[in-house]
């Protein structure tokens, strides 16, 4: 039996944090321990110390750190998650942005897109809400390679589509024996990329013209300092008047005062001030 104590946990936790900004608290010792055990078995290593040495000295390409990250990232998501927030986006924020810049392509970043449900949901909303001649592009990013591969395939089970309105399910999905496939018309304006949110340079290379940034239920896994750095990067990537959306339990104003608080229907939203 492999012994993984608090000392080993902290060493591996610190490696993950230094690479990703994801902070795993001590209450998650068992969660991380099980994932380290999986990697020890796969690599035929005998102890947690051997694994730590492997990460420090033998993982020259970063492949093993990536394998570990794939195991510790949480991919709990489904279509039309947190619907009231999406309603505020669709009925208030999107029409305002589209009206103010009628000839600009609408650009959206889905940060921490996981297996793709969020960016495809946004694609459906934009096709429903925008004039058919209006162009848009959704850049969907995540650090988990396995999740991104699933996202690109666009095939989902019953649970993932449980909140999709029936009319949209029929219009934008093909029924398969094993589930539902997103139709090409939904996928064509969505591009997936592997990007580490903790890497400010990689983020900045995505562009600086985003009208909307969605980073929902992702930053809850980051330390306070990491959250601040990521949101600062987002701010610099957005056009004046653009909107940022975090999860319903997250507050932008607790991270930074750079964004303006607005009411959109029954929902509070955060907007980059107009220059």
Q: Which secondary structure elements does this structure contain, and how are they paired or packed?
A:
Layout: H1 6-20, H2 29-43, H3 48-58, H4 63-72, H5 83-100, E1 106-111, H6 117-129, E2 136-142, H7 145-153, E3 155-156, H8 166-172, E4 173-176, E5 179-182, H9 184-187, E6 190-194, H10 200-204, E7 210-215, H11 224-237, E8 238-246, E9 260-264, E10 267-271
Parallel strand pairs: 1-2, 1-7, 2-6, 7-8
Antiparallel strand pairs: 3-5, 4-5, 8-10, 9-10
Helix pairs in contact: 1-3, 2-4, 5-6
Describe the fold and architecture.
Helix 1 runs parallel beside helix 3 (48-58) and helix 5 crosses helix 6. The chain has two domains: 6-72, Chemotaxis Receptor Methyltransferase Cher, domain 1, CATH 1.10.155; 83-271, Rossmann fold. The protein is α/β, with parallel strands linked by helices. The protein is globular, with a radius of gyration of 20 Å. A hairpin with a 2-residue loop joins strand 9 and strand 10. The mean pLDDT is 89. Strands 6-2-1-7-8-10-9 form a seven-stranded mixed β-sheet. It has helices spanning 6-20, 29-43, 48-58, 63-72, 83-100, 117-129, 145-153, 166-172, 184-187, 200-204, 224-237; strands spanning 106-111, 136-142, 155-156, 173-176, 179-182, 190-194, 210-215, 238-246, 260-264, 267-271. 44% of the residues lie in helices and 19% in strands. The chain starts with 5 loop residues before the first helix and ends with a strand. It contains eleven helices and ten strands.
């Amino acid at each position: 039996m492999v012994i993984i104590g608090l000392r080993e946990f902290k060493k591996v936790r610190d490696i993950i944090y230094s690479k990703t900004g994801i902070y795993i608290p001590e209450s998650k010792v068992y969660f991380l321990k099980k994932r380290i055990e999986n990697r020890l078995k796969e690599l035929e290593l005998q102890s947690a110390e051997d694994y730590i040495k492997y990460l420090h000295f033998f993982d020259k390409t970063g492949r093993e750190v990536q394998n570990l990250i794939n195991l510790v990232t949480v991919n709990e998501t489904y279509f039309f998650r947190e619907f009231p927030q999406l309603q505020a986006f669709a009925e208030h924020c999107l029409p305002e942005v589209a009206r103010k810049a009628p000839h600009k392509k609408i650009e959206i970043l889905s940060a921490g897109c996981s297996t793709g449900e969020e960016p495809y949901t946004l694609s459906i909303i934009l096709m429903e809400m925008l004039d058919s001649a209006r162009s848009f592009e959704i850049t969907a990013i995540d650090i988990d390679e396995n999740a991104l591969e699933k996202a690109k395939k666009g095939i989902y089970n019953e649970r993932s589509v449980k909140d999709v309105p029936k009319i949209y399910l029929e219009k934008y999905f093909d029924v398969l024996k094993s589930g539902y496939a997103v139709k090409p018309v939904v996928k064509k304006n969505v591009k997936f990329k592997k990007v580490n949110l903790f890497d400010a340079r990689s983020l900045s290379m995505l562009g600086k013209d985003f009208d909307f940034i969605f980073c929902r239920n992702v930053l809850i896994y980051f330390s306070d300092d990491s959250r601040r750095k990521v949101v600062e990067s987002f701010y610099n990537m957005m056009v004046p008047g653009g909107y940022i959306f975090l999860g319903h339990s997250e507050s932008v104003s607790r991270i930074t005062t750079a964004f303006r608080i607005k009411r959109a229907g029954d929902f509070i939203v955060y907007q980059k001030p107009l220059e």
